[in-house]
Design goal:
Blueprint lengths: L6 E4 L4 E6 L23 E6 L4 E7 L2 H21 L9
Antiparallel strand pairs: 1-2, 2-3, 3-4
Length: 92
């Protein structure tokens, strides 16, 4: 049994936004993945980053929600990186 995404958009060279139809929610076991790495276990919007090899958003209610999840992920990651450099000085 094969379920095709309702839509699949390349947002950039590394980001793919996929919308899975509600009918596929029960068709696959959790954790099954397509060739592109998009999990088919639940319906909704999935945002996959090929560079990181991970989903940045899973089962988001809208494309906008998926993008916000991805931005929030990268913002938190950036904030953690900055926290490690706070209070340091470069004295010559």
């Amino acid at each position: 049994m094969s379920v095709k995404p309702a839509s699949n958009r390349e947002l950039s060279a590394t980001l793919t936004l996929t919308e899975m139809p509600a009918s596929c929610g029960d068709a696959f076991q959790p954790g099954w993945r397509t060739r592109d790495g998009v999990s088919l276990s639940k319906n909704g919007f999935w945002l996959y980053d090929r560079t990181r090899g991970m989903n940045l958003a899973m089962r988001a209610e809208s494309a906008e929600s998926a993008l916000i999840e991805a931005i929030s992920y990268y913002q938190k990651k950036t904030d953690r990186g900055r926290a490690g450099t706070r209070g340091t000085t470069c004295d010559s």
